[in-house]
Amino acid sequence: MNKVFTDATSALDGLLFDGMTLMAGGFGLCGVPEHLITALKASGTKDLTIISNNAGVDGDGLGVLLETRQIAKMVSSYVGENKLFEKQYLDGDLELEFNPQGTLAERIRAGGAGIPAFFTKTGVGTLVAEGKEIRDFDGDDYVMESWLRADVSIIKAWKGDTEGNLIFRKTARNFNAPMATAGKVTVAEVEELVEPGTLAADEIHCPGIFVQRIVDGGNYRKVIEKRTTRPRP
Amino acid sequence: MAWTRDEMAARAAKELSDGFYVNLGIGIPTLVANYIPDGMQVTLHSENGMLGIGPFPYEGEEDPDLINAGKQTVTELPQSSYFDSAASFGMIRGGHINLAILGAMQVAENGDLANWMIPGKLVKGMGGAMDLVAGVQRVVVVMDHNSKAGDAKFLTACDLPLTGTHVVDLLITDLGVFDIDKKNGGVTLIELAPDVTVTEVKERTAANFEVAAGLA
């Protein structure tokens, strides 16, 4: 079965519908599936629920889907870099579900691993635990959190082969790896698409079983959110 | 004279020990990395999936794929490793990180911490803070003693939404250092910044606290 698509638009063809739930990889603007986000914007699909650690920044990352008002709800841990997000949220135009970052990551991991719920100490005694089951394990309270799964996960890797095996680069791995496992369909964009056997099997971060579609993204903008440097000696 | 941001960071660095794996929050806690004593090996953890955070890169060598949890460009060290977000928080929740140093909006005398939102006003999110305070072995908070408006931030009880309950072990402000017994309750002022008096600290604090012997 061919997993390879020629561009981001065709890679999403037939998968998108209004009101769907998507997972989008990346941390800040690091490791975001930038070509798939652009294609999603062009598709005009709306009322999206997007599970992503952040909401991009104004004019970049998932921020572009806020401009077109395609997002109805975000499930995120931190949205502090985005003024438009804050405005749409405070105006009541955008629903927001805050998850602690580790709970978000584990809910996604659980979704991909077939674990419908788990207990964590994170958030006990806070707003996050309201309305959720609390249970004592060995003398401490833990809150029950449920799995997250998506209609489609869009992720970005460094290298991939035509079987969908992926290798990520440095801190661009972040949510991309767990999200690959939790989409009914996972679409990966890569900087370099190679033939099977080119990537060392021992060094694959994400086995191809989790990836249904793959596209060579070509050129990447890779925007740096906070450029920090030190003087040369 | 109250401590500067750098002096607060230097004081927080005294909580480090050789071999520690440490997570530093955004703001003053990030400065703690500049005060790790020579010869002490401390490995810095970043929530977005890295152990062994190196210094900022030289200009022109920034790598968009290599950032810390504050989204700043950083570098790797020979001992660095990368992993995904689920593994990263497994380290945190699983108690493998020795120490977290975080900022705060409010701290209460029972160790409660609030640092993620002001209802109706500030919408940023908790990021990894709730996981850190729930899972890391020891939690140190570094914050200004009072808000810009002059209000107390060290309180009998937080009025902002909580990040965690009974989680803060040590509070470092520009005025001094408080030891918090988060299990049994009880706060002790254990250090003062130069020329700061106990009376001044009491005037600017809403929380109840004891004063350690020897602090006039």
Task: Describe this protein's structure.
The complex is a heterodimer of chains A (233) and B (216). Chain A has 233 residues and is an alpha/beta fold. Chain A is built from six helices and twelve strands. Chain A has helices at residues 8-11, 34-43, 63-67, 83-90, 101-113, 176-182; strands at residues 4-5, 21-24, 48-51, 71-76, 95-98, 117-120, 134-137, 140-146, 150-161, 166-167, 183-194, 213-216. In chain A, the strands form two sheets. In chain A, strands 1, 2, 3, 4, 5, 9, 10, 11 and 12 form a nine-stranded mixed β-sheet that branches. In chain A, strands 6-8-7 form a three-stranded antiparallel β-sheet. In chain A, strand 2, helix 2 (34-43) and strand 3 form a beta-alpha-beta unit. In chain A, helix 5 (101-113) packs parallel to helix 6. Chain B has a ten-stranded mixed β-sheet, sandwiched between helices. With 216 residues, chain B is α/β, with parallel strands linked by helices. The longest helix of chain B is centred in the N-terminal third of the chain and has 9 residues, at 5-13. Helices cover 16% and strands 25% of the residues of chain B. At the A-B interface, helix 4, helix 5 and helix 6 of A face helix 3 and helix 4 of B.
